Amino acid sequence: MGFLNVIKDILSEPAFLMGLIAMVGLIALRKPAHKVMTGTLGPILGYLMLAAGANVIVTNLDPLSQMIQHGFNITGVVPNNEAITSVAQKVLGVETMSILLVGLIFNLIIARFTRYKYIFLTGHHSFFMACLLSATLGAIGFKGVALVVAGGFILGAWSSISPAIGQKYTLKATDGDEIAMGHFGSLGYYLSAFIGSLVGKDSKSTEDIEIPEKWSFLRNTTISTALTMIVFYLIASIKAGPDFVGKMANGQNPYLFAIISALNFSVGVAVVYAGVRMILADLIPAFEGIATKLIPNSVPAVDCAVFFPYAPTAVILGFACSFVGGLIGMFILGAVGGVLIIPGLVPHFFCGATAGIYGNATGGRRGAMVGSFINGLFLAFLPAFLLPVLGQLGFNNTTFGDFDFGVLGILLGKIGNAMGSVGVYIIIAILAVVLIAPSIITKKNTAINNEE
User: pLDDT, tens digit, for every residue of 18-48?
Assistant: First the structure.
């Protein structure tokens, strides 16, 4: 009984479960004992680092939310995947990690036996999506094995389908390089590319523009996060007033308190990314090695930042236009009395920049600007509509920030609320048909849509 309790404790601790996933993969690859040991410890330490950094983010989001609510008399929410994930781990840790493992396995099975041969390698986004699925399905009433299997299948299916949807745009953006988009802001990037094709006729590429050196700091996300959050915290603290902020500051100067809170927020983001890198350093090679051995014609689906070198100027332009779109979206939500979604620098930088690259690929400068601006508007509206379907997580001061999280979360939540578990099973059946149909229609064994 004592041994079983130890096993149960290990499996109920997300950090150890993450290490266990890596260990199994490394043993399957027949790595030597010392590499299995270090490869198992890396993800465990990385997860603990991620949790510590996310706790810093959540701690410093709370005073900002209070200042906004008091000063502007509205509810303010900063979308941040790391923060909402850290909150979720307190109540959904085992479910999230179980869905992540099952989802990764389904992704490999789908890639092996269907024409969706895209291996999703952006592990932290799989982790965030597993968290979203555990929250939304749990709110509908799924529990135990049904929750894990349903969530794992949806995660694996979307990890395979989402790179395929816009692969023709991806090939344009990369000049035909054999990679795919492995990031759950993908629908926003494909929308940007589509908009670029509509508005960008005869528009020259962004790469013909010279960017001044003084703007290069935007590429350092820790510095740019700090600068942007300082502006938000100071505006909120001035509007809330020194008396209200002083109560939270425990005697410290209220404006100095606001600046330090903003800096702590950016430190939390930096710690989270360091933890994520540590997790991925061992977790992804384990799965990538297995996939390479088992799956012919597979295409790696990689993080959006991998695409930045293809159009560096579009990165800066896309970020700026997306951020403007987020600000306008925030004002619109405020004007209609909705939840105020404060533009988060991390989603607007990474997603806005990538939307700029895709918009530029099909529509040059106009495509990059208009496409990323529309992406920014959606990054304001989608999180606002997502909050009510997150169940107990919807009461926190943060939410998921990227495009696909909003679309899938809202879809599952609305259908689940209207039809219960039956609605979710209908979605799963539709996904299964979408996955199987291309193999029936044609005997080709190449990755679907991976042709220019």
Answer: 787 778 778 878 889 998 899 889 888 988 8
3-state secondary structure the chain: CHHHHHHHHHHCCHHHHHHHHHHHHHHHCCCCHHHHHHHHHHHHHHHHHHHHHHHHHHHHHHHHHHHHHHHHCCCEEEECHHHHHHHHHHHHHHHHHHHHHHHHHHHHHHHHHCCCCEEECCHHHHHHHHHHHHHHHHHHCCCHHHHHHHHHHHHHHHHHHHHHHCHHHHHHHCCCCCCEECCCCHHHHHHHHHHHHHHCCCCCCHHHCCCCHHHHHHHCHHHHHHHHHHHHHHHHHHHHCHHHHHHHHCCCCHHHHHHHHHHHHHHHHHHHHHHHHHHHHHHHHHHHHHHHHHCCCCEEEECHHHHHHHCHHHHHHHHHHHHHHHHHHHHHHHHCCCCEECCCHHHHHHHHHHHHHHHHHHHHHHHHHHHHHHHHHHHHHHHHHHHHHCHHHHHCCEECCCHHHHHHHHHHHHHHHHHCHHHHHHHHHHHHHHHHHHHHHCCCCCCCCCCC
Q: So what's the pLDDT on residue 293?
A: 66
How do residues 222-234 score in pLDDT, each as one tens digit?
Answer: 787 788 789 889 9
Q: Is the pLDDT of residue 351 over 70?
A: yes
Tens of pLDDT, residues 152-172: 999 999 999 999 999 999 999
Is pLDDT at 338 greater than 80 in this prediction? no
Q: How far apart are CA 273 and CA 49, in angstroms?
A: 9
| Mean of pLDDT over the chain | 84
Q: Report pLDDT digits (tens) over 78-123.
A: 787 877 777 776 667 778 888 988 998 899 899 999 999 998 888 7
Say if CB 20 and CB 103 are below 8 A apart: no
What's this model's pTM, rounded to 2 decimal places? 0.76
Residue type, position 94, single letter: V
Q: How far apart (Å, rounded) are the C-alpha atoms in residues 126 and 363?
A: 30
